[in-house]
From TrEMBL:
Signal peptide: none annotated. This is Transcriptional repressor. InterPro entries: FUR, Fur_C, WH-like_DNA-bd_sf, WH_DNA-bd_sf. The keyword Hydrolase does not apply. SUPFAM superfamilies: Winged helix' DNA-binding domain (SSF46785). Belongs to the Fur family. The keyword Zinc applies.
Length: 173
């Protein structure tokens, strides 16, 4: 039996917050905070259940935290392509679309060699985005206009700062 979906003010408010932050994954508590900033009072359970229902409807994406933390949700924008993966920056939380033939090739290898079909719509690779990596190395974002240039600057920084940790202090030499 399919449950009926009601278009309540709570649901509309939660959807509005998620669409406004479509480039980031948010926890239930982060959604609650954003709602409170707008003076919208919604219970934690309501937010959780609404997000789960939206995941079931295909309107939200959900990823589990790799460190056992709270699940995170993101709006599945209409232009979302289920064959693409996602890149998530562990520093700033930004999410980038991974539209790369290598992902398709990787998924094909996993299927052919291991008999396991990868759901690319739920494939999320975690790391540090080029902007955060360059900033950690003291490279101003406007000094290196392309992601590849920022990555190259970061690689040079890595050579100078062996063993640095981007989640901590910057690695300025």
């Amino acid at each position: 039996m399919t449950r009926r979906t009601y278009d309540t003010w709570q649901r509309k408010s939660i959807l509005s917050v998620m669409v406004s932050r479509a480039d980031a994954y948010l926890t239930v508590d982060e959604v609650l905070s954003l709602l409170k900033e707008q003076d919208i009072q919604v219970g934690r359970t309501t937010v959780y259940r609404t997000l789960e229902r939206l995941v079931d409807e295909g309107r939200m994406l959900k990823v589990a935290d790799v460190r056992g933390g709270a699940a995170q949700y993101r709006s599945a924008a209409p232009e979302f392509d289920a064959t693409q993966g996602q890149l998530r920056c562990e520093r700033c939380g930004r999410v980038l679309t991974l539209s790369c033939s290598m992902l398709e090739s990787f998924a094909g290898h996993i299927l052919d060699e291991h008999g396991f079909e990868v759901d690319r719509s739920k494939t999320v690779l975690y790391g540090i985005c080029g902007a955060c990596a360059a900033a950690a190395c003291g490279v101003p974002e406007d000094a290196t206009p392309s992601a590849s240039a920022r990555a190259a600057a970061h690689h040079r920084c890595l050579g100078q700062c062996v063993g640095h940790d981007l989640s901590e202090e910057s690695c300025r030499a």
